Amino acid sequence: MDSATGKKVLVTGAGGFIGSFLCPRLVKEGYAVTALDISETNAQRLRDLGIKVVIADLTKPESIKGICKDVDIIIHLAAWLGPWGKQKRFYDGIYVSTQYLLDAIKDNRPHFVYFSSFCAAGAGGRTDHLRYHREDDYEFRTGNSYYGDYKYDTERLVYQYHDKGKISATVIRPSNVIGPGSIWVTNTIDVMQKSAKYPMIDNGVYNASLVYVENLVDGVMLSLQKEAARGRTYHFRDDYTATWRQYTGDLSAIAGKKINISDIPFSAAWGLGTINDKLLRPLGAKFEICRNTVGLVGRANDVDISRAQTELGWKTRVSYAEAMDIIADWVKNVYLKKQGG
Asked: 10 Å Cβ neighbour count for 252?
């Protein structure tokens, strides 16, 4: 097991949702952390933790020149995230930015932890179910999700550098990450606030495939400590049994919003998502239903997590009930107050 003492870690996208939980844990465990983010928005909060902050744009190689010098570990969180956006935005924000970061690595052969997604396995882009899917099972570019396809491509790019000996890589594939600040919390509540009628695909019967952010961070920390994690890809999904219907119902209770479920068959939702993707996405328009979202909430995506459990000793530490209590406190005391609710 590696010692954290004195090890220098660069975290990209450190000011984001996952970074806001990961960076404090790294500091607590004794790592010397440098946070890279694209703006000053969350920089002071990181500096208050004793973290060095660098403001840079990963899509502009000149702004990250020398950033990887003398770094032992790079945790690459930064990516374009969200259902909207033209193809180039996903390409630049996921694949190109990673290429530039990898090119900035010189001779120190750092450990490179790439934050991918189970979308790289097809979640959100496939019309079939991904239940029990393992990391080594057959995978392919679906052509239906820019986010998933570029995560798929970027994983392979990272492993090219690993195979050439330029880095030692570990790929982290979270499922749907929840916690205070998660888009799976805020976006869901935002939809509820717009209308009492809430759309639910196939009546919300499938497992929501959630992972609580602190449990995910547990897994990342374990992967840093174990040499066997080098060259390995790991799914992280909690053992929660909550379906989309239960999770949505729990969030509506937290937000104090009574909703009426409007059931939409998967085939109809997928068809509408296809039309929106082809007609509205090239215009840069925002729309509620796209294939990526339909594939995430309308299929069973409870991928296999046995590798993380057996190789890393990872397990769910924060239960679903505990996670929802923490989320409830944040929603009521932070999020709704910011909205004036």
From this structure: 18
> Of 297, 198, 177, which Cα lies nearest the Cα of 252?
198
In three-state secondary structure terms, 187 is: helix
Q: Hey, which bits of the chain come out as E strands? A: 8-12, 32-37, 52-55, 73-76, 111-115, 168-174, 176-178, 197-201, 210-212, 232-236, 260-264
The parent domain of residue 101 ranges over 8-178+209-239+302-319
**What is the rounded CA–CA span in Å between residue 150 and residue 35?**
24
First vs last Cα of the chain: how many Å apart?
A: 48
* DSSP string for residues in 285-311: ---S--HHHHHHHSS------HHIIII
Both tokens of residue 244?
A: 């989309």
Cα dihedral sign, 40-42-45-51: negative
Domain presence at residue 124? yes
- pLDDT tens sequence across 50-72: 999 999 999 999 999 999 999 99
Looking up residue 124, the CATH number of its domain turns out to be: 3.40.50.720
Task: For residue 243, give the 3-state DSSP assignment.
Answer: strand
Total domains, the chain: 1
pTM given for the model: 0.96
Which pLDDT score is estimated for 341?
Answer: 55
In a domain, residue 173? The reply is yes
Residue 253 resides in a domain: no
